[in-house]
Specification:
Elements lengths: L15 E2 L2 H4 L4 H16 L1 H5 L1 H20 L6 E4 L2 H9 L9 E5 L4 H14 L2 E5 L8 H11 L4 E7 L12 H9 L3 E6 L10 H4 L3 E5 L11 E5 L33 H7 L7 H4 L1 H10 L2 H23 L14 E6 L4 H12 L1 E2 L2 E4 L2 E7 L6 H14 L7
Helix pairs in contact: 5-6, 13-15, 14-15
């Protein structure tokens, strides 16, 4: 894999960075655009943050660019700080009652597990996690597990599109469609999706979808989106009531404070805010186009899957899924049971490898992310390091 893209990133050359999945890494040209927006803000803060003098139009420009990238109407998108914020807005806006059920899986992100536990406690509702059969090798098994857990009490279906701990690509299309037919609201955590796999929000037609732009789309930190079906936008309440909120927020056809819908204005206009990361989303999309990112991503996918297969051969531990149901550029690799914190520290201190290691259920996992700045030599180093630290057989 060509390693010349490393020169386009600010990453420390002394560290082998294999953890793009956590917070991403922003290319230099995109980061420069980010700083240009920040400088523009500091030169004239009042004019910049005035919705009439530029702010609302600039925010819309980013929504238009992202809407085109995700096949979504820009009026159904709003910028938020991260996917957790977007999903909290949804979860805390829903009108749940005692006895209602929130159906989810045993692979969800810890912060969102806490979000739903909090919401359920306040409403007297119940979170029902489904055990997804592993290894995940076909859509039918996943769909059957989810549909089999739906009851007449199920009000919300909350799923990751790509899971964080296990790096699985859930085939969510069929269950989203069936949930709609049963009157169940679908809330999708797409934190790892934009820029990682093709995403068509119109075709998926989930009720609520939130994804990060700062991970695989490679915008600066603090750029994400919330997408809400037009007919449900009146249900959404901002976590913070500020200048964009109006008393007629929930009335059909009501106009927003600043020329957008109440949904957008109530979430977008929060007073003092540095929106530079969000405003740079068009630059991140343009960077991908200029670099021919489809080819870059394909090389990363091949390298990630090849490396995971090499590690599995040495550990004797099978993968969590077939390649079709694994996140293309991010693979969670089971390794022999060990202290994950000690393993992560050893990889950094002895080998200068930045990679997450953690326990999930009865597995110790090393989660590998491969991005355009990574090289085959770095994959070789990871395999060598794991072989040495875990005393694995080095038989290839």
């Amino acid at each position: 894999m060509d390693d010349n893209l490393a020169s386009l990133f600010h990453l420390d050359p002394e560290v082998v960075f294999l953890n793009h999945g956590s917070f991403g890494a922003c290319p230099k040209p995109v980061f420069q655009a980010y700083q240009d927006w920040q400088l523009k803000l500091e030169r004239q803060p009042v004019a910049f943050l005035d919705p009439v003098r530029g702010y609302s139009a600039w925010m819309r420009d980013a929504r238009v660019a992202l809407g085109s990238f995700l096949n979504a109407d820009p009026d159904d998108l709003v910028g938020v700080m991260n996917a957790t914020v977007g999903l909290n807005i949804v979860a805390q806006s829903l009108d749940l009652s005692p006895g209602d059920e929130i159906l989810t899986t045993d692979h969800e992100y810890a912060a969102l597990e806490k979000t739903w536990a909090y919401v359920a406690r306040r409403a007297g509702a119940r979170v029902v996690p489904v055990t997804v059969p592993l290894p995940l090798t076909d859509e039918a098994g996943f769909t059957a597990a989810i549909l089999g857990a739906m009851t007449d009490r199920t009000k919300v279906l909350f799923l990751s599109h790509i899971t964080s701990a296990t790096a699985l690509l859930f085939p969510i299309e069929a269950v989203v469609k069936e949930a709609r037919a049963r009157g169940i609201l679908t809330v999708i955590d797409g934190a790892h999706v934009p820029g990682h796999i093709p995403l068509d929000l119109t075709a998926l037609d989930a009720d609520f979808y939130s994804g990060n732009c700062h991970k695989w789309l490679m915008s600066p930190k603090g750029a994400a989106f919330l997408h809400v079906r037009r007919d449900l936008q009146r249900r959404i309440n901002p976590l913070v009531i500020s200048h964009g909120w109006t008393e007629d927020l929930h009335e059909a056809g009501a106009a927003g404070m600043f020329g957008n819908s109440p949904f957008i204005d109530s979430l977008e206009m929060q007073g003092t805010r540095d929106p530079a990361a969000w405003l740079t989303v068009p630059d991140a999309i343009r960077f991908r186009e200029q670099q021919g990112w489809e080819g870059v991503a394909a090389r990363c996918r091949d390298l990630a899957q090849e490396t995971a297969a090499r590690v599995a051969q040495r550990t004797g531990l099978g993968p969590f899924s077939s390649p079709a149901f694994c996140a293309p550029q991010m693979v969670s690799m089971p390794v022999p049971r060990t202290d994950p914190k000690a393993l992560q520290e050893a990889l950094m201190e002895q080998w200068r490898i930045e990679i997450p290691c953690f326990d999930w259920k009865d597995h110790t996992i090393v989660r590998l992310s491969v991005q355009g700045y990574n090289t085959r030599a770095q994959m070789d180093l990871l395999v060598e390091a794991l072989t040495g630290i875990l005393a694995l057989s080095d038989a290839a």
